[in-house]
Amino acid sequence: MYANQRYHNILERRFVIDFLDKVFDEMLPAYVAGEDAEEELYLSDFVEKHEEGTWEEIEELLQFSDQDVRSFAELVKNAGIDTPDTVGYEITDDDKVIAEAELVWKAKKIAYLSYEQKKYAEKLAHLGWTVFDDEHPFRADVF
Description:
4 strands; about 40% helix
């Protein structure tokens, strides 16, 4: 089990919180008062707005991670690179979990592995992933 498992995919689910906030804070009171809704609201609209987390959200999640993970994230942030898709992630192949990673950029197939996760590096590299860990330092050109 990895350090951030309880935060698994929280950035991907963040949009649901914003969606529900809008429903309960704005739309529900109007509905209860018998007023017509000024706009239609679709969850899919929120998905598009929340595809990336902010670095503040990433840093909040990383407070429970090892220093090497936090240091790598700081290098990425300072290089002006987009936030990872998620913190604490199970990478799958054919719907089977094959590895765990602390930071993941799914579309680019880039992962940062903690010391405990380094055992997955060879398997991920074989599947076309670029893997960073304490032995494979940050390279901005990969992103």
